[in-house]
Amino acid sequence: MGATTHRAPSAGTGPARRLDIGRMPAAPTALLLSALVMVIAVEAGSLYTIGAIRKALLGGGFAGWWVSAAFVLLTLMSTMIALPLIRAFNRWRDVRRAIARNDIVAARVARSEAHDRSWIAIGYTFAQFIVVLAVQFLLANNQAVAKTFFYVPLIVETFPLVLKAFWVNIEIFVVAEVLVLVWGLIVALAMFAPGTAGKPLRIIAAVYVDVFRAIPAILVIFLVGFGVPLTGVPILKDFSLTSYVIIALTLTVGAYVAETYRAGIQSIHWSQTAAARSLGLSHMQTLRYVIVPQGVRHIIPPLLNQFIALQKDTALVNVVGVIDSFNQSMLIAANHYNLSAVTTVAVLFIAISIPQTRFVERMMQRDRARLRAGGV
Description:
Layout: H1 29-59, H2 65-78, H3 82-100, H4 104-149, H5 152-190, H6 199-214, H7 217-231, H8 241-266, H9 270-278, H10 283-313, H11 325-336, H12 340-372
């Protein structure tokens, strides 16, 4: 019998095929060192800034155990950016150990984690760097910026006056929001007036929306607030300035809300209208019972956004002399040559706006989740 010849299996075929998983990864030393340098530099700046704040407070007459306790807490919080760096260093050592024992899988896993932890440290460090810059800006020129905008004694002294005037803003936007909801829906329904008979209504509604969306709100407030009393029209001439402001805001914001309503109504599929009309419902009944309820459900988030903008526009009432929170703060600023009272107004608007903004975002997330799940 002839000698049997054994052939080695070709590369990449047969049971002898080996998985090529690449070369041994290198430890991310350069990235880790970069993160270390950034952490050290920003931490040094943080400690310097904390010391400057403490010195400024002690020089301003603020003393007591709570000051020292607060700054110990700030110091501890500022060092928190080192935690991701420590974790990155531990994973970096794991990479070195895995390389030493030639464990390529463990080395790759550890390198990935070390890479991620290093970038996390860099991200947190950059965020703290921005905070340090902002605080240093407040402390600039012997705390001139902080004293101009955040002078605590003046804020405490004038807060009751500003808060009392802020209720005027609340009254205006609460009443205006109710009127805008009704007026915007009326205009939107006029834009859907059916047939040839409804064409004049559609044209008037469209012109109104175009005109009042084009005119700045401050001009409408000025024209209504000063113009209507000059006309001497019975009843209207006896309204208060606050009422004129509410009318002006209703006219302006109502144009935007009408467009929001229109978008919501148009988002409902035409088959809903066809089905309702086939059941014998009139045009207005179809809108009332079928289309509008569904359309309003779709536009709640944009409507709330319009109302958030409306409550900020109430600060424009100062053009007609209504003493709202902004006007009151400007009077205080003129008397004390300091803008801390204006900062108080900003904080009050933030306090009522941010919760509403978060609520709108949650509603939008819920709607997106419902749509992804196939809901209506």
